[in-house]
Specification:
- By secondary structure, the chain is an all-alpha fold.
- About 65% of the residues lie in helices and about 0% in strands.
- It has 19 helices and four strands.
- The strands form two sheets. The protein has a two-stranded antiparallel sheet. Strands 2-3 form a two-stranded antiparallel sheet.
- The longest helix is centred in the first third of the chain and has 35 residues.
- It is globular and about 85 Å long.
């Protein structure tokens, strides 16, 4: 069976030769160098894609985004979602052309050179580890909060909770890829069930004309004003920037970070059954998921809770809109329910991060010439990169140790936030790699083609740059922005110079 009328290189590290005569390569022929097992089924990938778009930010952080700019946050979520969809179409097109690749980062190496590829590969792996550290901390915090609603204090056991979660999720990743896929399927199912429950609750409240009195909500200072459930809570006195244009623009970076890890589905392709059938469907359905799970949830929340009722607490936190909605619906155990789902969402994110970090470290080890990295490039009898997964898990395990040391803990918060910022560089490089792919002989005109790529690629790049610029406008994020630039200049410069010297030495050797 053939696809398209051009070929791609077999490995992700070789540079494409634009003068090479193109020919078709099937998934089977490309898989000759793929030691992984294609154990992920269509339903696994579909729910992994859904899970990648739903994080803890929706359940706990949406109150802050609503308070920032009111109902117009809906348009921000749609706008940013469209840009992230362009990113996924670019990744999807390249992965479709060569579905044997373990990560979309390989295409940066192939089309932009080894220097940028090395920078992107190691940077992305470090980002995954740092994000994993923050997620394992979040898991234990939410776990303690969850049991706190029942009067059980587990604060002194946070380190053990983190260790148990990490060992369990690492074990899931080590057994087999289909076990990982099954775990993500059920994690995503729990998150989806809560969101659908929220939307259905809002619809029922609208139909019966539900109203509620002022109520005390867990996690919110003071009592929240009562109101009648109505769509007019969204439309009355609507303004695009009710709290000023600065807050409106700042909401874009907040929403952007909520969408991070949406690209995760681009790491599963080399282990997916029928990838050229499953991948386009998973990517194309992202827009519908965004509309349902983000936009639908936000409309439901603001129809029930007037957006002006969201206020910052004295400690700088915001109450969870999900807890508010279910509390108004008469569920006294709403906080416990939401925190259970939040624990699930955080565990799902950590599970995916361990999976992705393991695959990226495996790829980095495979590309490395260092003998010390060789054992990380091995695949176990279960067809998973076990050594790379364990090594990544051990790095994440440093989180409870770091959090226990006050001086280091403060610096870690800066590094973790800077890690989120440097992901923007990866996204920009991915879009530039996509442009090079479309101009190369590897391009599959009958593949999963991104339309109007000449325009959309630059729109996405411009947006990512704009988001990074907004990081300099807030005291909370300027440190991350500066740290990210320092990383780009130092490590990026090192990688490019190293590639240049390697090429020079190679040329000199050939001339001898």
């Amino acid at each position: 069976m053939t696809f398209g009328n051009t070929k791609t290189e077999k490995t992700g590290t070789s540079t494409s030769d634009a003068t090479e005569t193109a020919y078709i390569k099937t998934v089977e022929s490309l898989d000759q160098s793929n030691e992984m097992e294609r154990g992920l089924k269509n339903r696994h990938v579909q729910f992994i894609a859904i899970g990648g778009t739903i994080g803890t930010g929706l359940f706990l952080g949406s109150g802050k985004s609503i308070a920032l700019t009111g109902p117009s946050i809906i348009f921000v979520y749609i706008g940013v979602g469209l840009i992230m969809f362009l990113l996924m179409r670019a990744i999807g097109e390249m992965m479709y052309s060569d579905p044997s690749q373990h990560t979309f980062i390989n295409f940066i190496t192939r089309y932009l050179g080894r220097g940028w590829g090395k920078f992107a590969g190691w940077t992305y792996w470090i980002v995954l580890i740092l994000t994993g550290m923050t997620e394992i901390t979040a898991v234990s915090t939410y776990f303690v909060t969850f049991f706190g609603t029942f009067g059980i204090n587990l604060n002194s056991w946070k380190w053990l909770i983190e260790l148990c979660f990490l060992v369990a999720l690492t074990g899931i990743n080590l057994i087999a890829v289909k076990v990982f896929g099954e775990a993500e399927f059920w994690f995503s199912m729990i998150k989806i069930t809560l969101i659908v429950g929220l939307i259905v609750t809002a619809i029922v409240m609208l139909i019966i004309g539900f109203s509620y009195p002022a109520t005390h909500i867990e996690g919110v200072d003071g009592a929240v004003s009562g109101a009648a459930v109505s769509l007019t809570n969204i439309t009355d006195g609507f303004q695009l920037a009710p709290n000023g244009w600065m807050n409106f623009f700042m909401s874009f970076q907040m929403v952007f970070f909520a969408y991070q890890l949406i690209e995760f589905v681009g790491v599963t392709v080399s282990e997916t059954q029928n990838p050229r059938k499953v991948l386009p469907k998973a990517v194309n359905e992202l827009i519908m998921r965004i509309l349902i799970f983000y936009v639908g949830a936000l409309i439901a929340i603001m129809a029930i809770v007037p957006w002006r009722n969201f206020h910052e607490n004295s400690d700088g936190s915001f109450g969870s809109p999900f807890i508010m909605v279910f509390k108004y619906a008469g569920l006294d155990w709403a906080a416990a329910l939401v925190f259970f789902v939040v624990i699930t969402a955080a565990a799902s994110a950590l599970n995916s991060l361990i999976y992705s970090a393991g695959r990226h470290l495996y790829q980095l080890a495979s590309d490395s010439e260092s003998p010390a990295m060789a054992h990380l490039a091995e695949v176990s009898d279960h067809k998973v990169p076990a050594n790379a997964i364990i090594a990544s898990g051990c790095m994440i395990l440093f989180s409870p140790i770091i959090n226990a040391i006050p001086g280091i803990s403060g610096a870690f918060v800066l590094f973790a936030s800077a890690a989120s910022a440097v992901v923007i560089f990866i996204y920009v490089l991915t879009m530039l790699a996509h442009r090079k792919y479309r101009q190369s002989s590897d391009f599959l005109p009958d593949g999963f083609v991104m339309p109007a790529w000449q325009v959309f690629d630059w729109i996405a790049v411009a947006f990512f740059v704009l988001v990074y610029v907004t990081l300099f406008l807030s005291a909370d994020t300027i440190g991350s922005a500066i740290a990210g630039l320092i990383w780009l200049v130092t490590f990026g410069g090192y990688c490019l110079l190293h590639e240049r010297f390697q090429n020079r030495d190679l040329k000199e050797a050939l001339h001898r």
